[in-house]
């Protein structure tokens, strides 16, 4: 399993089952998003119909000019016909503007609905999804793919309806004028249809591959141009290497876009060639009829003009399958994410922890990130209200996994995690989040002000509450010295602040949240002595009176713990107080000798 920097292999969290591109169920699902806007769709259709009918008028006006006004020397009729030649396209153009506005409005509305649904779906995913999926790929689905819906609405769907109405109305008129000539003109239309399906399949395949490559490019850019990624590139002197990788990935997208646009061009060339045959036949046979006196010149000119209205939309309709297949691949990628299974879901009838006491219990818990490879096996322990339970052990023993399960970032494969006797899977997600608070080893701050970062825990908090929490966390004085105080923007991921300052802001944020159960991954070993002392003082305030589950990096935390759990290979191998575990001479005693005692002798810090 991996995702990463520098071209490491990415493993997909979930490969959605492939579905038929244009199956009935897929079409019904797409239609569901347009159903709330059926009134706008009806107006769009009326606009298209009105514009199509008005488009039939100019050739008739030309016919009357040639057959009536000019031969009869009727200037008044000529002026009237010419005025109509100007007025009719003008009205059709205004209707087109209205139609386009309505189409854009519907497209934006559908994009809004789908983007909101997808964002909500992504928020409900478990931590597993985000550890296995590049953030750039997620952004590509949420922005680029959903953004393509506008083109489907204003381009594909409107074009299909427009072309159908134009072809139908044009056929009605030309058959009304002269049906033998009309049959002759449209006789070559079946030639257009033959190779369409194959062209559509090729373009759909290339379109899907292009979207995937664009997602990869977006993920690459997001990784290398983030603050952390940029630091990595600069520190290792990889600017030229990453620029070369960007060039290669961008070139793949360029070549695929070229292929997508060139597919079927020879086919379309022959379509246009055949389209010129129809007017030639009309002029040839129609001219002979005119010589015989059976047809007027104006009628021939009108019929040839109508063929221009017929062949263009007809050739587009021949390609409608191509366009729909391309649109289908776009919706496939969107539905891939909308159909992601929700691993951590709120059960029907879930209860809220109204006044939690904070009694946390693990009962024979098993867990595996990958099937068949247990990270935890039969873990059983409890943390009573107000107790501090420390987790120690070799790296990879399962300490962080226990904290993830307590906060229900994952669900156990076996056994149960309970709070006050209630399985966390039966607790509402909101009340669980309010009950269990975490200060993680890697402090995350939004690119926002200090106040906004603090209010993330309590949006309604007053300025006085922010200051009180900051004082308890030993960070108020630092904030007060910032250029705009609490209104200072901390920068991407808080890079304008030191590690100790970010940690104390995170502690102040948790103080505002005031959870009954606190999960703490102490990360003070890399701080300077002054910052470490301030963070420890803030932690002492934070831990007071709460049920605490702490991954111990500090000897002081271990000594203060009511109980120490020693984990090895996913099992609790020892449990007790510091003194009890030392007296047993087991794994804890050896860890103490190897890490804790040496850490105390140097700086007081201990490793995990």
Task: Summarize the SSE layout with pairings.
Elements: H1 24-34, H2 38-55, H3 57-72, H4 75-123, H5 127-132, H6 135-147, H7 149-177, H8 179-186, H9 196-224, H10 227-235, H11 239-262, H12 265-291, H13 297-318, H14 320-338, E1 360-370, E2 373-383, E3 388-392, H15 399-406, E4 414-419, E5 422-423, H16 429-435, E6 436-439, H17 450-455, H18 463-472, H19 476-480, H20 499-513, E7 517-521, H21 529-543, E8 547-551, H22 555-560, E9 563-568, E10 571-576, H23 578-584, H24 587-602
Helix pairs in contact: 2-4, 2-7, 3-4, 3-13, 4-6, 4-7, 6-9, 6-14, 7-8, 7-13, 7-14, 8-12, 9-11, 9-14, 12-13, 18-20, 20-21
Structural overview:
The chain is α/β, with parallel strands linked by helices. 62% of the residues lie in helices and 10% in strands. It folds into two domains: 34-338, ABC transporter transmembrane region fold (Up-down Bundle), CATH 1.20.1560; 360-443 and 509-602, P-loop containing nucleotide triphosphate hydrolases (Rossmann fold, 3-Layer(aba) Sandwich). It is elongated, with a radius of gyration of 35 Å.
